[in-house]
Amino acid sequence: MIFDHNIKDIGLYTRPSTQGDELDLVEDFIEYYIHNFLKSNKTNNLAIFVEPKVASGFPDIVFASYSPKILENWSEQRENLETGQREKKQYIQRNTNKNYSRLLFRNHASKKRVE
Asked: H helices within 1-115, ranges in order?
């Protein structure tokens, strides 16, 4: 799957690509990568994001290889999470070893509100 446009429902924001040599190079590399991925990978799927907005800016390409089995255990509660809730859940999962007060400070929440 190639994602090259905004999809607000999932929190994906992209920058419009500018026609020219750089875009031609990006498209050629995507084709090359897909070809090699399909040759060497029989279990995972590939998602390609073109100029997605990330914390540090807009990289030309982001490749994400993922197991389709992850969707088999997708709970209804997880499916119903809104974009902001997904981001907070991911942040908490990545930072579970950090101390509680620092986690609260980073998310601008009060202890009472979180409990």
From this structure: 21-40, 76-79, 83-94, 100-106, 111-114
